Amino acid sequence: MEGLIPRIAITSLGKTWQGRRGDVEALRDINLAIGPGEFVAVVGPSGCGKSTLLSVVAGFATPTSGKVLVDGLSVDGPSPERGVMFQDYALFPWRTVADNIGFGPLARGVKRAERLEITQRLVALVGLDGFQDRYPHELSGGMRQRCALARMLANDPAVWLMDEPLAALDPQTRIVMQDELLRIWGDERPADQRRAVLFVTHGIDEAVHLSDRVVVLARRPGRVRAVIEVDLPRPRSALRSSPEAARLVAEIWALIRDEAVDAIREENG
Amino acid sequence: MRARLPQRVLPPLGFALIVLGSWYGVARHLANPQLLPSPWTVGVALVDLLGNGDMVDDILASLGHLGLGYGIGAGIGLIMAALCARFAALETAIDPLVELLRPIGAIAWIPFAILMFGVGSTVPVFLISYGAAFPIFVATLAGMHGVDRALLAAGQALGASKRMLITHVVFPAALPHVLAGARLSLGVAWAAMVAAELTGSDSGLGWRLFWYQEFFRMDRVMAVIVVIGVLGVAADALLRALRQAVVGWSPEDSNAA
Q: What ipTM score was computed for the predicted complex, to two decimals?
């Protein structure tokens, strides 16, 4: 992405959590730039700090060292300019689908008529027609996920920050939602009509399938181990399990495997 | 899933018939009828009391005590909980006192209240307030502290101001706990009402219990007890219906009800 001003610029970022049992260095010297319309996935073994990285960019946590710029401005706290999708969706259980989607515009003071228009457009976009008036507990996992995506999109954020948004879905729904996500992001459109995405995931195949680049983090502390370019053509939905994708998945797994085994041993022991 | 209607209704109905039947048998053939009137006699006394208007006055007096006392007590509990959730220092300051007063219970204050206020309506109102304040305070504070942090984060990321986070995230998230606390408070308030009227009041259902005890009218004593029970169930049902209407979004079993 040389020559373009990055939407997200992370420079020498370090984050140490202070806890009762001493400090934990979660991230060390992370450097990463995400250009306009670029889809960047972050993978790594448990404890590599990938969720911490997303929290810092979202503004929920402050960097211990280094800085994060979004559109040239330093991040200081959450902002509707940066849309966030959470691991467990974090839908408001007392608001219907439509009212969850309309929360962002309501918070920004958008007039009622326009809010209604935004909500209806997004309900249709994510395929929730007929479910506007349902409450989250009445929805399946996939539908909650669609609702959470629509809620994020209602603010039309400049960047999308997604923290394992598909992790809680069953495997088939996850595949469907991966392609839905690509469609909504603009997989079939030119790159200048897409948003910049920072996508944290456990799934290496998911990362390869979705992204333009995969950032592989090492653990304890979280550092950038490698950045893998995913040079597969778009749109991608037909490309599932191509030999090239399989080769990239294997390459990334080779980078993570030893540490992932260590992480599992530590968790069990 | 709710069981089908006959399965929900028949067993309790059957059990009630067994209890009534045993009561009737014991009252007719074994006990002194002055001491243990039969269900039939109690029923007659009940119709009689409702008919001559005395009972209606007693019910209205009790509901007046309850309404005022519960309104004051639950209101104080609710406001204090909201203030404690907002100002941590206040919670730290009053927590030991709350923990000290809470287990004492309203009934222990009856002698204090009678000496302080004299026999009259102030005694039940005071004790109902006292009893009602604690459960709703504790439940509301727990609800406000227990708001899912991810929901607050989501609200912030969507652009909500601090004020909107409180009105649109913290309040609705705590509401099921508030209503659960309101229900617990009502149960405590109801018991405090009867106990306080029994000794410290000159009106109400509890006072009437004492009155009929003095006249050795066991049939009427038991008729009043039946009314107290039925009204208690009705009041609880009212709050449950309110809960369903207000927080129908929250599945019942997911609440600390």
A: 0.87
